[in-house]
Write a structure and sequence with these properties.
single chain; alpha+beta; Umud Fragment, subunit A; seven-stranded antiparallel beta sheet; six-stranded mixed barrel; 16 strands; about 15% helix
Amino acid sequence: MEPENLATIEEPAEPAALARPSAPRGVLAEWTVTVLLLLFGTATLVQAFVIPTGSMEDSLLIGDHLLVDKLAYAPRGVISKYLLPYSDIKRGDIIVFRYPVDVKQTFVKRVVGLPGDRLHIEGKQLFLNGNRLREPYKFHKTSYFDSYRDSFPGQPNLLVSPQAEEMLARHVADGEVVVPPDNYFALGDNRDSSLDSRYWGFVPRANIIGKPLIVYWSYDAPSDHYGQFLSWDHLRDLARNFFSKTRWTRTFLLIRGQRPEIATGPAE
C-alpha cells in the first residue's frame, strides 16, 4: 500500500495539528527545514503521502497530499545528531507509521501517550496520568455514546485486533492503559470515527516513519478516489474540476503538533 514515492495513509482527522506558529522565528526555522528537505531530500528523507479517510479531521482532510519528514525521528548517529534536526516524539505530535496489524499499510494519528503514561477515556474525555486533558484539536462528530469507544478501556463491543486484546489483557492497571517501553498510544482527531490504538493497540517505536511536514496540495474528492491505485474516476474528476476542487488555501500549509493541556474548566 506504500509505493516507492507516493503512499496512501489510512485512517487519518493532535492536540491541534495546523495551528499557526506564534513566533516569527519559529516559522522561519520550520520553513528553512522544509526548503532544505525539498531541495536536497530523496526518498530516504522525504516521502509523499495522501490522506484517504476522515479520521484526522479537521486537522488533516481527505485529499490532503503531504510531504513527510522521515529524518525527524530517525536514530541519531554519533556525528549526525549534532548536525541534523532530530527530535523526540512528544505528546501532541502527528506521526506517520506502519499499521501494527498490517505493516504494508500506513496510518497517521496523533500521539497522546508516551512510554509509562497512564490513560483512560471517560465520557469522551481523555485523562492522562490522572488529569483530564483539554484537546483543542479533537472533534466529536456524533452525538451518541459508545460503551467502548467513549469509556476506554473496557469490554470491547466489536471485534478488535489481537494486539488490542493483548493490550487490554496485559497493560491495564486500575482501569487505565499503561503504555509500555518503546511504544506509543495514538488517537485520531476525529475521535468518534477513527480506527486507532483503542482498536489495534500500541504503536511500536520501530513502526514510526516520520512526521507530516507540509500539505503541498489538497483536492476535495471522496475516499474511494484515494485507494491503493489511482482510479479512472479520480482522473476524470481531476480533468474536469482541478481548479475548482483544489483547496488552494491549504496549499503549502505547514503541519504542526499541538500539545494537550490539563483541563481546569467544565467537561467538553
